[in-house]
Write a structure and sequence with these properties.
It is a single chain. By secondary structure, this protein is of the alpha/beta class. The protein is about 40% helix and about 10% strand. It is built from eight helices and five strands. Strands 2-3-1-4-5 form a five-stranded parallel sheet, with helices on both faces. Helix 4 (about 90-95) crosses helix 7. It starts with 6 loop residues before the first strand and ends in a 42-residue tail after the last helix.
Amino acid sequence: MSDLPRFLALEGLRGVGKSTVAPLVAAALGAELVPTVPPPYAAARRHVDGRENPEARMCLYLAALFDAAERIRQLGCEGRSVVVESYFARCFATHLGMGARLHVVLPPRLPAPLSFRLLCSEPERQRRLLTRVKATTHWDALAESSASRISAVYDHFPMAPIDTTDHTPQQVAETICDRLREDTADADREPVGTDADVLSAVPPRPRRAGHRGGEDCSGRGLGR
């Protein structure tokens, strides 16, 4: 693997294994696992999650992600690798899929992840969701009823697919690390939505060829 700091994002629908696999990948890489909703946002998150306004919820998650991005940039400048359980792609896919009608353009200098999209069969995903001990919220139910629309938005972001259906979380983490070692992962190295395309209620257009991803403080890309 490259000695440069890495920034990896795991994306996908509820139940595909993001929260379980992310810490395993971080441990395997000796990377920092950075929460994309930092702790100071917890109270605001509870407040917004108690409402039913997708635009308000999307704005909160965007604010939290911008905050997290600063931490990610700092770690990259220190030569530290970072793993996150979802990044801007999930925020856009989830909220646009659930009906948010915001037009957003992200700044071009955000840290740019290598993105892996975790997938699994629908029966297995539903089985995993049934094993969760936490109560199902309004947003969980809406995400399930909007799953096909959320997936359609995800389809517009280039990511390396990883099938988790018949694999343990440790096997999935090892697969991701193997892909990195082989340097063959077709992963997203560009920050989502930084090409002057407006991200709106319709899925974004593919990015223009040749567009460069974000860079860290030394001018090196925080990717592969």
